Amino acid sequence: MKRVMPYLIFPLLMFGFHSFGTEFVLPVERRIENTDSSGKTWQEIGSMEVSLMPSRQMWELALRRNGWYFVRNIPLDPVSYKQLDVWNKDSRTLILCLWSIAPGRTGYMWGISKRKP
What we know:
The structure is a single chain. By secondary structure, the chain is of the alpha+beta class. Helices cover 21% and strands 41% of the residues. The longest helix has 14 residues. It is globular and about 40 Å long.
């Protein structure tokens, strides 16, 4: 777990989350568990009643349709397949974390930050 924490904290320290309105159409098949518009943490945390691969495809489709482009993937936990996906659009970076909770259920959290020049 100690190796995972720098990957989770680094994006927050590097960019800091900002409160931006939802700038893309989110996948509708999701259960929102927490939202935060403070800009200091993940903007939304929740789960989806689909397995990991279909949920990844839904998020990718939603982001690409709205002009976001994929930058990189950072694997975090091989057991739950937890990964961070980094997406860019204009001067903003979206960080999306997806992981498998159980067969047929995926957890997610995302936040948008403004890149520093």
